[in-house]
Amino acid sequence: MERAASWFVKSGIQESSGGVARYYRADSHANAIVSTEITGYTVSALIYLYRKSGDSGLLQAAERSGRFLTEIAWDNSLHIFPFEYSSNGVRPQPLAFFFDSGIIVRGLLALWRETKEQWIIDAAVKTGWSMGRDFAGGIGLFHPILRLPEKEPLPYEAQWSRQPGCYQLKAATAWYDLAAETGIAEFGAWYEQTVSSALASKDEFLPAATPEKTMDRLHAYCYFLEGLMPVIDRPDCRAAVEEGIARVSGYLREIAPLFERSDVYAQLLRARIYANDLGGLPLDHAHAAEEAEKLKHFQCESDDLRICGGYRFGRKGSEILPHVNPVSTAFCVQATDLWEARSSGQRLETHSLI
Fold first, then answer.
1. Which CATH number belongs to the domain containing residue 28 in this structure?
2. Residue 88's pLDDT is what?
């Protein structure tokens, strides 16, 4: 955990502006472009690590990223978060993603719970309204991507992130959290609509056409499981989580010799632990221990600060992939911490799930 925290603040993955690159490529020694979604994830991760360690430097880093999102990345004329931000002249794609907006809201709310500063909750609420207003495609349907500045939905494509799907429920938990913090009923209603549509469409999501694409979809399907955690006490949601954990576990172990993603191991382990704590589902200790052990092999040990403590994205066959990834790092370090602390008796909170 200490090495992961150090990677977030010392590796350069967080730029001086507070924006966070999508990943660092260890082969070409370069960061990808800054992503607003990944910056939102990083805020959540930094707050989680701060709450565990008490290191004020992590809170300061989270505040830098929060300021970047609200003061630099947010488009004041369009009232929306663009997909990317460029500080080096590279032209970012003129897009906005529903999913990204939800992740940003959850990051801002994590920061707000620590600081209680009004600018943070104001930005989260504005983004919540943007999600419901700009991406709306019908009751329970939200377009995944808009073209800017027109705010026109892109035509749907076969790739999972280019069409609506059950994975969007993770982003919709931003509405659940906003409703809880503000009492605004519309946010709660939008979350409930997304729960209904996700449950209705979940069986269409897996598998994909190839094992590699199925592995990618396991990552997204875990978002669906994570999005159900606030309502896992409902019988239909509890059953969906139980079935979903079994499906992800089976596909992951089948495909892993060909292609494995560190984030899928981490998301599955987190889902097991949260489902056990919040929903009373049995915890498969043997499989969970195996997943926790797998995570250890993805964390970088190096004298190079650009990678030391970060987690690799994945492995194809025997080849470790060069991407050192903020989201993989956030998910893996939280999953490892939850597994090691599972007997502490501390009750988990849905909003603490990065």
1. 1.50.10.10
2. 67
